[in-house]
Amino acid sequence: MPKNFTGLSSQEAKDLLKQYGLNELEERNKVTKLQILLRQIKSNFMVYMLFIAAVTSLLVGKDITGYTIFAVIICVIAVGFVQEYKAEEAVGSLKKMLMPISIVMRDGHKVEVPSEELVPGDILVLGNGEKIPADALILQSRDLRVNEAALTGEAKDVSKTALECDLKELTNGEPNCEEEPDEKNTLFMGTYIVNGKCFAKVIHTGMNTKFGQIAHLISSAEKELPLQKKVNDIAKVMVVISIVFSVLTAGLMVFNAPVINNSVLVDALILMIAISVSAFPEGFPVVLITTLALGAKRMSDKKVVVNRMSIIETLGETTVICTDKTGTITRGEMTVKFIFADNTLYEVEGAGYIGHGKITKEGKPIDLANSKAIKLLLDSSVVCNDAQIERTGDDHEFRALGTPTEAALLVLGAKAGIYKEDFTGEIGSEYPFNSERKMMSVLYTTSSENGNNNVENIVYTKGAPEILLEKCTKVLKDGKEVDFSPELRAKLEEMQQEMAKHAYRTLAIGYKRLDSFDRDYKEEDFVFLGVVALEDSPREEVIGAIKIAEKAGIKIKMITGDNKETAAAIARQIGLTGDILVGKEINELSDEELSIAIKKAQVFARVTPEHKLRIVKLLKSHEEIVAMTGDGVNDAPALKEAHIGIAMGKTGTDVSRATADLTLKDDNFSSIVEAVAEGRTIFNNIRKFVSYQLAANIAELLVLLAGVVMAPKLGWDTPLLLSIQILFVNLVTDNIPAIMLGLNPASTDIMLETPRENAGILNESVYLIIAVSGGIMALFTLMAYYLDFNVFGQSVEFARTTALLALIIMEIIAAFAFRSFRKLVLTRSPFVNMSLVWASLISVVATLIIMYIKPAQVIFGTVAVGLTSWSIALGISLVMTVLLDVGKFFANKSRRYVQDTR
Predict the structure, then answer these.
(1) Of 661, 682, 658, 683, residue with least CA distance to 672
(2) For the segment 475-491, what is each residue's pLDDT rounded down to a tens digit?
(3) Which residues are catalytic?
(4) Which Pfam family is an annotated match for this chain, by its short name (predicted)?
């Protein structure tokens, strides 16, 4: 790295940020609080209907009813605003979690900064797989190719090169270039590096970038989620049902009236509106988005960031998780434990990214001056390396910036006092590592160590042993380069396999000297220096997570680029006992043969991204719902092909994160299992919310219609419940508890069931639950009215209040019953969902207010009922509870019911 790539100072960056502002694109559809409030009025059918009812009431002199309905309108708007605002806040917080990070030069050091804080003049350090965060001029590059499809629509990669510039005044002004830069020398915001690396100076940020200039042409309209469509379809059916019921009920009320006058017609109109409003599922869409957003927020608290909200529904259906090993199954914090060099096995002390520890031979520290092979191996490990380590304290602990493997090699060098900063030469060219080549080489040019001005050109290399050993013709032995004998090759292979059997990851190191500078050197004829064995033990929580997943009917398949022995050793430690397939075997098998082998295999070793893609396609052909993890550029096709693509937040590339549906902030396998559980919980909660809301609406519709039909025979006054009472029940008793059902915590058996198979929100069994529950509540409400009016001889007002009280109590109990389709309400603690408890208490208090506070009695047409009415309401509510539990008890014996209510 040239010395004058010092970048801006911290103070300069702060000043420029004030001058240019944040590096962000304007959100065309960013929603303000006022817009959310206006949206509750503009697109709310309920508000318009209630407004008509309120105005009509005032025009005919029913002032109390009119003003009360206006108050209901305010409450409806307020509830909708709070729900939608919470959803917007949750989505906003998720967007912040997805905020990208850039590596820049500041004060002469590489540092990570939020991409939104980039300013013109910043020096970007960009590599393979990274998203370009701003428009920038390429100052220095190696084998750079960029995908500009996001900008141009062209899928073909574009080669980019640096201009020949005088970089001496780089931090004090514009670089002095021989020619004007054009597009081949410029990187543009929103595009991706697919090969190579570069240093680039930011020239434009935010809306001043090329991407920003065309941002207004990009549609930001949100697509309807699949789950949202399902809920909206249910809502449309309920709209039709509510209209039919409201017209029928109002018509019968007018027909049964002894005298038809304006008062009767107005009452019928208001009742019709009240019925339509109460049964109209206006809250479905908002509650759905709120439930999804808050669920996604809970998932982010568990280290899983949802990139696409639509994926939450699919999560609960997952049947196969294909997971990487390194950093996901394992800790991802590697440590070099052994070195085999110069026909000798050396041990390395220490663990993790702590620089304490010595390299020992037979328990004694070695002297690097007397071990040329170890010295060259350490040099190669440090120079042929894209990572960076920084001290975080006085105890030689380092923070890693880069892949765990490369960070471990830098820590190994630090233990011997060798740091990347000590190498003052230049990297002439580089062949970067990728998953196909499985090796990396750099040409390093420097003055020779003997003190004269001779220049040395050294190629340092590292890679998978089976790859690199084939490219080595000599080996360093006793300080001399000698021919690589078959005997030594055999011993190395035996040593490597022995290390792999103990779960060590092995990496071969080599070098060669060139007679002259040759940027296009060939990766061959290397001198073998040695093999390092790296330890990356499984995470403690992974074994438990795998057991949970398997109990939930989810198959686990570990996919790794490591060799078969290392993969097998890790698999044994975490309890994966199935067959092992290696990349070579995958290549030799036909799709039909591989389909059979995949069913039995739990571990895939020496796998390439192409293998991953093939595995996903074949699993999907067997009707599996596949979740696939990935971190590299070449993993993007497999992530896109999988039903659920999961990127790594710590080690993943920007390309993989942009392709994926989920991002693991901690790269931890157990987080995937928790995400599946949360996905199942969210879907179940939406099903419970919708089911409860429909059951309550059906109960109210049946009560009003049946009341009008039965009134002439039983001498009842109609309507059975007043319009204002129906609105009260809908707003206070239905909506608030229903919303809280969307916050129900995961049931203890959520991961003890097999995945549901493309289940809709409602099915035959759930429809039956809704119909039976709604029917029972309606029947018992009518019974309460009958007992109070016809049996005990109470007045119409008393009977109506008793019926209202019974309906409210039953709906509150039903809310607790709908927490589970299979668990009995009488045997389950009500305090599992405290949000529902508080919502129920609010409903109870509100009910007591309208029954026992004089002004409220006038408004809602209620009276202060006594012990008789309470006995009736509580008695039939208890009977209803028992009936629901008895129904669940016998339904649980039905395999079809259990299957439908998973």
Answers:
(1) 661
(2) 998 889 999 888 888 88
(3) 324
(4) Cation_ATPase
